[in-house]
Amino acid sequence: MRVSEQELYDLMKNKLMKAGLQEDAADDVADVLTFADHRGIHSHGAVRVEYYAERIAKGGINTHPHYEFEQTGPSSAVFHGDNGPGHQAAKEATEKAIEMAEENGVAVVGVKNISHSGALGYFVEMAAEKDMVGISMCQSDPMVVPFGGTEPYFGTNPIAFSAPTNDDRMITFDMATTVQAWGKVLDARSKNQSIPDTWAVDENGEPTTDSNAVHALVPVAGPKGYGLMMMVDILSGSLLGLPFGGHVSSMYKDLTKGRDLGQLHVVINPAYFTDKTQFKAQLSQMLNELKEQPAAKGYGEIYYPGERGRLRSEAYDKDGIEIVDDIYDYLKSDDVHYDRYHGKNRFAE
Ligand code: NAI
């Protein structure tokens, strides 16, 4: 099914309002979700609406949050999210971080007590659009073994980075710290397919190709990804006095309570470190040089981080965004949700 960006946004916004979000919040959440689908990050777009709608309807996302921005130093602040929609809290916190970095060169803003916030690329690009560098990271629920372990401890704890160039390109690197997203395992299960033995482990901590035997995901690049996901957890959890590691709330277990998740957004104003124009020109040159590099056999060409998402957006602008039929039917329906998530675990099957 192909839909226009506007139709997708409208459908998601309507559904979120029907579930109970105020219009301004539904606007923000739908905007972040549309960004994800438009870039081809379908794991964090419309596919999530039914889950959010159920959590909103059951009280696990505060529909009347009292946000509080607490500036704790010239370059530091804590945004209290009151378990409101994570997308909205993260957006407002990033806007504040950009203002602070404009004034003081650097801003480090922690966001605490929020729900899931989707694709982090959205927030770092807000900074790059203002000619700044954005770095964002956040906690998520435990589903990854520590390197060499058998039981999940950390989440897929993503980290994102964006920087401007002096042309219309933007560098956007945005990744979970696992080899693959959990959604890809679910996808393989639903199609009765096997998975590469590098994605996940079974209950003995052994690599598995059986998607049904998956017990936990593995960190990207072994001990290095393990260290990275720990860093993300510390900076977006413990640093803000929030639950950490294996204590982070489950996405699906109890949809009636707020998730109390944390994030960290760092915004750097290049003008405080170098000549801003030169900085952006150098990044453009870097991308040009990368694009001119010879590609290895089987690769066709070299892409810079974020380029494939942009190419997908251009294609979607012409042909419409690709959405699974069932998701489109749900978005068009009058139903708010189908009671599919509350109480579920093992990562909602
Ligand atoms: P991915 O594996 O699709 O892409 C990771 C990065 O690699 C991207 O920056 C992409 O531009 C780059 N890339 C991919 N192929 C490339 C190529 N051929 N050449 C150059 N660069 C290339 O992303 P992943 O890890 O599946 O994450 C998807 C999304 O999930 C992200 O937006 C992330 O923020 C989000 N996420 C959110 C969570 C949350 O709790 N809010 C938890 C985990 C992930």
From TrEMBL:
Q: What Gene3D superfamilies does the entry give? A: 1.10.1530.10, Hypothetical oxidoreductase yiak, domain 2
Question: What keywords are assigned to this protein?
Answer: Oxidoreductase
In terms of Pfam families, this protein maps to: Ldh_2 (PF02615)
Q: Which SUPFAM superfamilies match?
A: L-sulfolactate dehydrogenase-like (SSF89733)
Enzyme Commission code(s) on record: 1.1.1.154
Write down the top EC class of this protein.
oxidoreductase
Q: Which GO terms describe its molecular function?
A: ureidoglycolate dehydrogenase activity
InterPro entries per UniProt: Mal/L-sulf/L-lact_DH-like_ah, Mal/L-sulf/L-lact_DH-like_NADP, Mal/L-sulfo/L-lacto_DH-like_sf, Malate/L-lactate_DH-like, Ureidoglycolate_dehydrogenase
Query: NCBIfam families of this UniProt entry?
Result: AllD, PRK15025.1
Q: PANTHER family in the record, alphabetically? A: MALATE DEHYDROGENASE, OXIDOREDUCTASE-RELATED
- What is the similarity comment for this entry? Belongs to the LDH2/MDH2 oxidoreductase family.
Q: What is this protein called?
A: Ureidoglycolate dehydrogenase
Lineage, top ranks:
Bacteria, Bacillati, Bacillota, Bacilli, Bacillales
